[in-house]
Amino acid sequence: MKKVLFALSLPFFLQTASAQDISYYTPxxxxxxxxxxxxxxxxxxVIATKVTYQPGDFCQYANxxxxxxxxxxxxxxxWEIKHIEVxxxxxxxxxxxxxxxxxxxxxxxxxxxxxxxxxxxxxxxSPKEEAPKEYALEKPAIHENARKYxxxxxxxxxxxxxxxxLTAKEIYNIRESKNLILRxxxxxxxxxxxxxxxxxxxxxxxxxxxxxxxxxxKDREDKLFSFRVIPDGEMKDxxxxxxxxxxxxxxxxxxxxxxxxxxxxxxxxxxxPSEEDAKKKEKLKGxxxxxxxxxxxxxxxxxxxxxxxxxxxxxxxxxxxLVDGLFDKKLNTRVVFNPQTGGIIKIDKD
Length: 350
Description:
The protein is of the alpha+beta class. It has helices spanning 2-8, 62-66, 152-155, 160-183, 193-215, 275-283; strands at residues 21-24, 33-54, 76-101, 111-113, 119-122, 217-229, 235-244, 248-250, 258-266, 288-301, 304-321, 333-337, 344-349.
């Protein structure tokens, strides 16, 4: 058994062999190459956004001087669900573990396995797997210190109300300066496009910093959460996780939040195996592989559907046997498997 455990710990395992004999794997046996077929796990990736609001120093004057309504003077932090995606991934199925013993009547030269022991290829190398998807996550904005854009008159004003009034006038002056430059009517115009962009960007920065004194600062920060669901069959309103506007993403067991539901329905009915197929699998003459089924997956929260899509689900499919004749010594047969589903991607022979 020690040899098997060592082999499965490698990124892939290439074993020279002169033939194959497949049988169900029994723990305690250390002869041959052990490989697994995958079963489907549903990986649920959730992007949740933490929103933080800090009121500005002049928030109570936003309507009077800037004509901006609905500005609150109370700081707050809350969460939003921004995006949910579901992917099928393959994990080793302990009920579908097989042992390939070495014989002398076929032409298998190597077997490639993943580090988890899932079969990837026979007599060839599998293509390089795609890197996991990277999500573009929103980060808090960089806020300028508004005081460095305040004029002397603003800083020397005797009251907050007067400071707010003078700041509003400065914002309007900045806007007027931008308009004059963009219309080509400024007394001193930039010499080229790069200079124009630099000046406009600087004026935008000043306007934004001073305006935040009225509107306040709102930051949005995305965080990625992942959950894994391993279905035994169809699922109806399975609680994947919970969500709270004040606390964010919570585990399915945390009753502080409202449930987020996953529903899975089979969409591809596989025919029942015939008596002949059953006998063929019983003898296991050839490499075993999956014919995955498909399932429609949906994610719902508070009546809103965040995800819906059809994904491969091996639990809705069945297994088949690659006929032993494919690996006759007269043939050079190469097989590439999908390690996520256990299905065949390609068969070549010459």
